[in-house]
Amino acid sequence: MGRGKVELKRISDKSSRQVSFSKRRNGLMKKAHELAVLCDVDLALFVFSGKNRLFEYSTGDSMNKILTRYQSYKNADEIVRRTVHEKLALEFNEVWTADKLMQITQRHLEENKIQESDISELCQLEKEIESMMQQVRIRKTQIMLGTVKALQEKQKQLHEEKQFMVGEIMAARMNENNVDG
Predict the structure, then answer these.
(1) Are 157 and 149 in contact, with CB atoms under 8 Å apart?
(2) How far apart are the first and last CA of the chain?
(3) What does the alpha-carbon distance between residue 10 and residue 17 come to, in Å, rounded to a whole number?
(4) Considering the chain, what is the average pLDDT of its residues?
(5) Which residues pair with 44 in a beta bridge?
(6) What would the DSSP string read from start to end of the chain?
(7) Cα(23)–Cα(33) distance, rounded to whole angstroms?
(8) pLDDT tens sequence across 113-137
């Protein structure tokens, strides 16, 4: 006979909540250990209790090494994000802005004295404006597609680098085990 489904809501009784926290925390630590052993991964786990007490678990050499790896990963990710943002800013500066388009239109209207224009001249002006807007949309789409492609290539490159590093780590561990054994 299986267990019934537990409704996920805060346990109101303080002592029951503490007992449940202790049991579930220990179960979580056990699952973390199992994951680390079965899948040969480095793992860090932090749990803060309701009284702000810290419980931690880490595999591998130490918590500091895992945190250092995490920080370097986050820094590399931030550098990629910043680089892409700067690249986008440069490319979007090439696209006509709404102000520039408005200036072109305004100058055209002044030169052609819109008040004196007939219907055919106004239709021609409308076509020119639509053509300019279409050019802006096309260029914007090109830039966005180029950026997406560059990001996908960067993601692929980072994945390949990660796979290579994992292979190097595994080889080093194998060598370490062979030396110890």
Answers:
(1) no
(2) 46
(3) 8
(4) 80
(5) 58
(6) -PPPPPP-S---SHHHHHHHHHHHHHHHHHHHHHHHHHHT---EEEEE-TT--EEEEE-SS-HHHHHHHHHHHHHHHHHHHHHHHHHHHHHHHHSPPHHHHHHHHHHHHHHHTGGG--HHHHHHHHHHHHHHHHHHHHHHHHHHHHHHHHHHHHHHHHHHHHHHHHHHHHHHHHHHHHHH-
(7) 15
(8) 666 667 777 777 777 777 777 777 7
Residue corresponding to tokens 């819109």? 114
CB atoms within 10 A of CB 63: 15
Is residue 32 within 8 A of residue 47, CB to CB? The reply is no
Which residues of the chain have a pLDDT value below 50?
Answer: none
Token couple for 9: 């809501």
Q: Which amino acid is at 61?
A: D
pTM above 0.90, yes or no: no
* Residue found by looking up tokens 């914007």 in the block: 140
